[in-house]
């Protein structure tokens, strides 16, 4: 009998299988990454109100610590997520499509866990001669979070395909430069610069429009027939399976923060300005939050339009059969 047990143990060890069920303690630190701007309002609210800690404790996880990071764009956060240095990230639609395609079927497969918001994205210019995409010249530069891969970059390609024909979807790519929203805003509002246009987000686009020399060339809403998720929350399948309570606690905290913002936008604005150090006046911030085009919601939308476009032009080599394949069930349940 003992020989049989020993033989089984040797075989299991040879195949790398555990000899007995292993107890697994969930992480006691949660690492979160966001980008710049009002599109990530839930994060400073969760941080200030300690919603994650509250829900984690209620789930029996005790006291956990939270690490907060801010990155320039989705491509940087994707690298951080794959490397295991963060647990949840905020990605634009192209960001989640790209990382899902790269990690599909692996132990660290990345999927969307929740929506975050709906917000229009505006292409602004400070050159009065630029009224449409056709007016950009070779000497002009368009600042956006990340060339070719950010949400703004893909929307610019979609707009170019509509304006110039599908074969010329990348006609303006060589004019784009990667620049964080605060830096791009400084370039747009400052002195002479090669940056004559910026494709950003709130509050930066609204701050720029306060300047009479800045005007709108186009808005993302011109291209889509349904509310478009500006960002979604994503994580790896590995983190979700190894930390089910912490995963659920974060989503509960996110939902509470979303409800908090929608119930009292002035208080949410005060928290955002205090936590982030943003110098936008309070009344301007509240005005932006009350724009009907901006919604804080955990629903997801507009994904299929990006999947279809990116697959058609060849920037997505491994498209999903259905865009819902890129999301965990709880993210889709929120949309019902």
Overall pLDDT, averaged? 89
Measured as a percent range, the helix fraction is 40-55%
Shape: globular
Count, helices: 14
Based on the coordinates given, report the CATH architecture of the largest domain. Answer: 3-Layer(aba) Sandwich
- Low-confidence segments: 1-23
Q: Number of folding domains?
A: 2
User: What is the fold-level CATH name, i.e. the topology of the largest domain?
Assistant: D-Maltodextrin-Binding Protein, domain 2
Rg is 22 Å
Q: Total strand count, please?
A: 10
Characterize the structure shown.
The protein is of the alpha/beta class and 336 residues long. It has two domains: 29-119 and 227-334, 3-Layer(aba) Sandwich (D-Maltodextrin-Binding Protein, domain 2), CATH 3.40.190; 122-222, Periplasmic binding protein-like II (D-Maltodextrin-Binding Protein, domain 2, 3-Layer(aba) Sandwich), CATH 3.40.190. Helices cover 42% and strands 16% of the residues. The chain has 14 helices and ten strands. Strands 2-1-3-10-4 form a five-stranded mixed beta sheet, sandwiched between helices. Strand 6 (141-144), helix 6 and strand 7 (176-178) form a beta-alpha-beta unit. Helix 2 (42-49) packs across helix 11 (265-276). The radius of gyration is 22 Å and the shape is globular. The relative contact order is 0.18.
């Amino acid at each position: 009998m003992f020989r049989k047990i020993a033989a089984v143990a040797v075989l299991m060890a040879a195949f790398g299988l555990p000899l007995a069920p292993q107890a697994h303690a969930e992480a006691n630190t949660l690492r979160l990454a966001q980008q710049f701007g009002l599109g990530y309002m839930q994060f400073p609210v969760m941080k200030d109100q300690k919603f994650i800690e509250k829900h984690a404790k209620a789930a029996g996880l005790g006291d956990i610590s939270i690490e907060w990071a801010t990155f320039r764009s989705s491509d940087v956060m994707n690298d951080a997520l794959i490397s295991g240095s963060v647990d949840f990230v905020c990605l634009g639609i192209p960001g989640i499509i790209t990382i899902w395609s790269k990690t599909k079927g692996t132990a660290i497969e990345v999927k969307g866990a929740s929506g975050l918001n709906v917000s229009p994205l505006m292409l602004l210019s400070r050159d009065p001669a630029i009224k449409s995409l056709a007016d950009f010249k070779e000497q002009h530069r368009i600042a956006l979070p990340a060339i070719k891969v950010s949400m703004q970059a893909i929307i610019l390609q979609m707009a170019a395909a509509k304006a110039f024909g599908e074969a010329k979807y990348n006609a303006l790519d060589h004019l784009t430069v990667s620049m964080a929203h605060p830096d791009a805003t400084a370039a747009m509002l400052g002195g002479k610069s090669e940056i004559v246009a910026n494709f950003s987000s709130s509050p930066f686009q609204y701050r720029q429009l306060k300047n009479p020399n800045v005007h709108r060339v186009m808005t993302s809403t011109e291209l889509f027939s349904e509310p478009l998720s500006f960002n979604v929350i994503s994580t790896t399948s590995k983190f979700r399976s190894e930390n089910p309570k912490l995963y659920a606690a974060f989503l509960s905290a996110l939902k509470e923060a979303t409800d908090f913002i929608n119930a009292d936008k002035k208080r949410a604005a005060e928290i955002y300005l205090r936590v982030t150090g943003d110098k936008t006046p309070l009344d301007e911030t509240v005005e932006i939050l009350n724009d009907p085009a901006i919604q804080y919601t955990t629903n997801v939308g507009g994904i299929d339009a990006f999947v279809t476009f990116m697959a058609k032009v060849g920037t997505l080599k491994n498209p999903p059969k259905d865009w819902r394949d890129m999301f965990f069930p709880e993210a889709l349940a929120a949309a019902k």
